[in-house]
Amino acid sequence: METVAEGDGGYPYDAVKIVWQDAETDDGGWQVHSELAPKKHLCITYGFLLQKTKDFCLIASTIGISAGEPENCSRFQIPRGMVQSITVVEKRAMKRKRKTAPKVAEQAPNANP
Questions:
Q1: In degrees to the nearest 10, what's the CA dihedral of 21, 44, 64, 71?
Q2: Using an 8 Å Cβ cutoff, are 40 and 24 in contact?
Q3: CB atoms < 10 A from the CB of 79, how many?
Q4: CA–CA–CA angle 69, 87, 90 (5° rounding)
Q5: What are phi and psi of 102, to 5 degrees?
Q6: In sequence order, what are the residues at sequence separation of 6 or more whose Cβ sits closer than 8 angstroms to the Cβ of residue 34?
Q7: d(CA 105, CA 5)
Q8: Can you give the pLDDT of all 113 residues of the chain as single tens digits?
Q9: How far is CA 34 from the centre of its chain?
Q10: Contact yes or no for 17/86 (Cβ under 8 A)
Q11: How far is residue 17's CA from residue 77's CA, in Å, rounded to a whole number?
């Protein structure tokens, strides 16, 4: 029998905090070159880390389970070159399903010999 551990939704993803540098644009108006002043624009994003490759981090803000299979929505992809740090907030926020034996009811001892 396959069950989900108590307090557990069967999700195989870490909950993470990602600090990353966003690309930025100006207001689009004319500017003189002497006014060039690039600045760092750091962002912090929390979510469930769905995938991490050498090129990007893919996270989802919401995960769920339907018909026994994990699903997600509100995905957000951050290029790895922009990522400053990734911190695991909760390791495998929800564990995968596990197999357990069905519970057997306890029988009271027989009072009659």
A1: 0
A2: no
A3: 12
A4: 45
A5: -65, 145
A6: none
A7: 20
A8: 333 344 455 567 899 999 999 987 777 778 788 877 778 889 999 999 999 999 999 999 988 877 777 788 899 999 999 999 999 998 876 554 445 555 555 555 565 55
A9: 43
A10: yes
A11: 14
3-state secondary structure of 34: helix
User: What one-character DSSP code corresponds to residue 72?
Assistant: E
Domain 2-25+39-99: state its class.
Answer: mainly beta
Residue 77 dihedral angles phi and psi, to the nearest 5°: -110, 125
Cα distances from 49 to residues 1, 10, 68, 87, 113, in angstroms, run 29, 15, 20, 11, 62
> pTM for the full model?
0.65
Which candidate, 74, 71, 63, 76, places its Cα nearest to that of 18?
A: 76
**Token pair for residue 47?**
């979510």
Q: What is the pLDDT of residue 111?
A: 53
The dihedral formed by the CA atoms of 40, 44, 50 and 52, expressed in degrees to the nearest 10? 30
